[in-house]
Amino acid sequence: MREWAECAGRDDVVLLDGFHALKHALRFGAEVLLVVAEEPEGVRALAAGLAPDVEEAVARLVRPGSLKELLPRVHPTGVAALAVRPGRDAGRAALARTPRPAPIVLLDNPRNLGNVGAVVRLAAGFGATGVVTRGDLDPWHPNVVRAGAGLHYATTVDRLELEELPPGPVYALDPEGEDIRALTLPDDALLAFGSERHGISPELRARADHLVSLPMRPQVSSYNLATSVAMTLFHWGGPRP
Q: What residues form the membrane-spanning segments (predicted)?
């Protein structure tokens, strides 16, 4: 418990809540400092059955401990870990690198932590270059990492100001935009999505090179943020075969 408290107090350490977050973090090169489980043998069995590629690492790292004394809520898989957050300089360099093989997802002032985590998970699955947020929400908040199943380590995730955005044409999703089905989204695009309530901010709308709309039945108000991102990334094309 002392070691957990010391690690958790570091600014560069994030919580991996549950086996899937731990699994993905290990797969994509996270520096995992400490893994605690109520029943270590059960976690080792999970690794053997679901993720044999990280089984050895899980078996080496996991220690017995009372998660109820460490966390306000224990994940159903009975395991939690602490890992080092990737350095921001390397992440920003990856975002700025050109030519870009896949778009960047830009979330303009998102409000829901779970939605942001779901977007990170989508971006990782589609092979997007990264997920960038604007506004005061921390994209590395523990609830975002939980919703993203640890896949923050499979892509670049950061919070940037408007003037810090990487180069590339901005395609902003907006009901008044051109139908996405008539467009080809380039690999170097920044795909911008507005907040769940207010949509694209005026300053980002002014910065946009293209306004894009998703097909939607009349009188339906909107799509969920993660659904909109999924539809747009699918239209872009996804990972190469």
A: none
